[in-house]
Design goal:
4 copies of one chain form a homotetramer. The two termini of chain A are about 25 Å apart. In chain A, about 25% of the residues lie in helices and about 25% in strands. A 5-stranded antiparallel beta sheet of chain A has the order 1-2-3-7-4, with helices on one face. The first copy, chain A, is an alpha+beta fold and about 350 residues long. Chain A is built from 9 helices and 18 strands. The interface between B and C is large, with 52 and 52 residues.
């Protein structure tokens, strides 16, 4: 069991990088919600490969086909299933990897787990391509949340040494999310995107890759979502975010920086804003005791540099049991962080809609 | 639903800070395992309050009573239930908090969620005291893992500005864990503990508190544990670790630092160590594609400073709907990080034993 | 994993027949509900042993102790944990059973599953005694449901050859449930109870036991509870009812008799009863497509005769691998059916409250 | 949440009767198992409509397309997803049903649950057509079980008044299952099938339908599968079997008949059969305390007569809130019991393989 998530809604992801199709079943959506398929397609496009000089050369239309769950364009209570066909798969590129695992990729761990039967082509079920169905599910949740007045947005905060502005933890607004969607590379500050682009191009030139950080926020959430202990919003968001390949860290609110502070600095004082209770700062990232407090939910996710690089690397031959040198073929992103932005939004949207239904 | 965790084993935590007892039911333990109750008590003692000048003055024996799950001192396949009585509860200290929520504590979020019916006394179900049953479950899993040759240990990496040595990601050994358990404040380097102690005492003197970071490792794990996408070891560990009050961030291996690196720096090359496949570095924290690769599992958890501080703070009166000033009474830790160390070990042990059974 | 049930509420049962205590944690109850502990005790008494000449001689007070989940007598949102101490345990009676399994009891299956480490005394975790915590959880759900205008009741429909009247499927009312609770042996028709009592006494005289059927109904349920396919009300009720030791069959509405009918006989016609939609018959047992239709939910559960009988029986010696003769000692009910009545009510109440919260 | 089942394997069913496709994702299959797609197609054919004069006139090829989960024809550890296109859908037949619910069909309950947004066409997600993906998942589990020496088979035990021979509870063998598959209507005794056929044809002639009972067995199972209380094999099988539309009762071993017996009649004595422990009778249906005891698992499922009949029936108009008369159009089976046989086999196979993996 591995590819399922959720409580009130349950998403179930399937597919491999080079299988006939990838897809997702989403069980538990409220009935009676109109789904805008054009908008869903536009959202998926933000994640799709082959769109610019800084992403993989693999091109996939990523046209989602909705197989079920709608009646007259409206959710009908039945699971909504979406598939996306894999078109531009070149499995031949991956043959060597069955024997020589790529450093820091899932190849070796999967080989042990599945006794050598894992689908090696394109990374199989471990491929970043599996974030397309995640985004399909998330894209639908984003639409539904918007109808509830809840907006989720993310931006690239850092790529290598280049850094964007941070969200203002207290005053994040849906307008910021629009700005990000207009800017190349999904940043708040256009020039930050330009520096990041340089970092990526340099990495690619060297046959290397580069990591980064995505920052995500949700506004408009009511207080009281989430549950104590193991079902807090932090647990749930982390539980889905680490399903995005390459995610290696997550922090909420002041996060790791909060670990260096005094309570008097880090505590968020309450005050009355008219009839509403708010906090003056938002070091808690909108979550206290696992439960939303009505302030923006705010978190950051660290992504490691893509492990698939063109440079020669040391590895081993599984069949011969000896050291070996690997030169990865195939088409790869020098930096997955910009394409991870909609994935993080999707993950947050799924969690928050699920918590909303479960309130 | 909130206080349950696990797949093959299911732990179910109950209790409030001032309820008659707190406890845990652990369902799914293998049958036929001898449980050493003295060792369990010793482990719980590492978390228990009232043990030194740097923790809360509340004293609790925290003597666990095993109600079921054993036959002749050996696990019998039935759920193992443990309770710990609450003895030294002074509920009167908490009356004011029903109206004036403590900044950065769960009071307000819980008030909204439970319509004012939450147990305010001592933080109720949100109290750090609920980590005692977590540690009871974890202490049992630690014993079982050790019998399988798997060792889990954690140390305080940072408190405020004071920092301990890091684990050597490749060569962590169970001997390090013994060192930590002998050193005050659970550190690798004794002097680091002394600086941390100073930071905590200073915080307490000011009526303030201070945050920190715990680093945790597991050695002896076979490769192949965990599942792809939503059931990776990272997802699962994060899913339980955020159940420890105050945890606001987690990173695996190089984590956030990896987000600033190039792939060529961050990738972990494979090599043959005799007949074993190992990696020369361990920036992956022992997990690739959600699955263990046989290297030490390594992660760090950020804890915010305790929100309960003695200093006056701004808050609101829920009944009057106006701003109010709060001065928290009750007995509180100026720093929970040292007491969080066994909690993080417990969380990791539960997850890893669960993943082991689920392999 | 074995002893947990539920979606929105999760009950987690622990204990063995002769362990220090048995108990249950109930996670997910709505906050703000007053629990009447006297009523809970009275409900548990209906299940408790040692109350008449037709049940086991083991006497247990079965006084429930609520360890958590309440604040001021009212549910506070935290898991409600209840334990019941085991007092009158005579483990010596069970020694022989470690080697010679009782026919039609769980002894042998448990021996294989747990490698001989199962708790043999009193049937361990498989004992009917574990229905006490089930009833504790169910008793609380029954109280809550009543506050919602939903009433659940069961009666003994048959013991051996003696049969009670059936519920009128369309016109069941809470008044019927009161009648049952006043009549000895939990029957609708007093004289039916007298015949049943005779059957039980005869069985006991012979050192034998006798089986029977319990019929259960719930009235006042709104239409629309339950989910299609695997989460229908039938699936859920069956999923908990087979947790009562001895249950071997369940049927909803016309059940097995419906399998001999024509559609025109078995279909329940709709009609307007004022502004309400009702059906003229209720062969569906109030459930269509897994979802309640507003008519009374109605089902019957078959219980096998208690396997522990005083007569000599053929069995095997596990240690010697040869045939053996067994004469069961210990104190046993000649018929568990009357004591199963509150268990079935409890199971139905837990399911229906869970489905109500999950609507 | 509704359409998911399982513990170690998780099946997730999607689709509506007239949606573009129906399908299933099966997560958790062991890696390295060759799937015989011809055999899978042949198994699905046993369930498919339009094959004889006694089933619906709707014709569907029901050709399964495997979208993922295989690499080189062998399971690779990733979820195996299968879809089946809906070809011969005539939605126009169903328009009236949006207003006038069919007696004893899910129409009204679904209308309430989904606020009128349910997919009415062909019964939507509640259609018997959704058993095609159940059979696809079950067909794969049947193949895998056979490789483990475990065989599952079912037959029509009764249709209306016509009855087949029962399985011999102790000596069921895989040969019986072959016999059944060769006989028309899936019976043990050919002539029983002929009487059943007569009953079905008579029902159809009258514009009526008829119910029945399916008996199912599994042989070759090791002792020790299943868990106590809520995760027993009975709970699990019932939890999936009630997902088959029309199932209204289930009994294991002697079931309801056992409720009329004495313990001395119903108990299954153990004896040594060479080195194996067996029971002389099998009134327990191979399950004790929820756990297999090594004897054949044996159960029976009651199916109500198809609610869609051609005769005029009383119903109500939801829009007008008044009584109405309904004459169902569309193409329907006069008896679903023969087509339910592979569904019951599929349900049992999924459960037993899941329990096998979870042992």
């Amino acid at each position: 069991m591995s590819s399922q998530y959720g409580k009130k809604i349950k998403i179930s992801i399937f597919g491999q990088s080079h299988s006939p199709a990838i897809g997702v079943s989403i069980d538990g959506l409220s009935a009676g919600i109109k789904i805008d398929t054009d908008e869903l397609r536009a959202f998926l496009k933000r994640r799709a490969p082959g769109q610019s000089d800084i992403s993989t050369a693999r091109t996939e239309d990523d046209m989602p086909e909705i197989l079920s769950g709608l009646a007259g364009g409206v959710t009908c209570g039945a699971p909504l299933a979406i598939i996306i066909r894999n078109e531009d798969a070149r499995s031949a590129d991956y043959r060597e990897l069955r024997d020589i695992p790529r450093p820091s990729h899932a190849d070796y761990a999967a080989h042990v787990k599945y006794g050598g039967h894992q689908d090696v082509a394109g990374g199989g079920h471990f491929s970043g391509r599996l974030t397309a169905p995640l985004c399909a599910a998330g894209g639908i949740c984003l639409q539904i949340l918007r109808g509830l007045g809840i907006h989720v947005g993310a931006h690239v905060l850092r790529i290598g040494g280049a850094e964007d502005d941070r969200f203002d933890p207290v005053n994040i607004s849906a307008v910021d999310f629009d700005t990000i969607r207009e800017n190349p590379l999904s940043v708040l500050r256009r020039e930050a995107g330009e520096s990041m682009r340089q970092q990526i191009l340099e990495a690619r030139e060297k046959g290397d890759s580069v990591g980064g950080v995505v920052e995500c926020a949700a506004v408009g959430l009511p207080a009281g979502l989430g549950d104590p202990i193991f079902d807090g919003i932090e647990n749930r968001i982390a539980g889905i975010v680490f399903g995005i390949p390459g995610a290696k860290g997550i922090e909420f609110g002041s996060g790791f920086a909060g670990g260096e502070r005094m309570g008097s600095e880090n505590n968020d004082s309450f005050f009355m804003d008219g009839k509403n209770i708010k906090t003056r700062t938002n070091n808690s990232g909108g979550i206290l005791g696992g439960i939303t407090n009505g302030m923006p939910v705010l978190f950051r996710v660290a992504f490691k540099p893509t492990p698939s690089i063109a440079l020669e690397q040391d590895s081993v031959s599984l069949s011969r049991g000896e050291n070996a040198v690997l030169k990865v073929k195939g088409r790869h992103d020098p930096c997955i962080v910009p394409r991870a932005v909609p994935c993080v939004e999707a993950a947050a949207a799924i969690t928050l809609y699920d918590a909303y239904l479960d309130r």
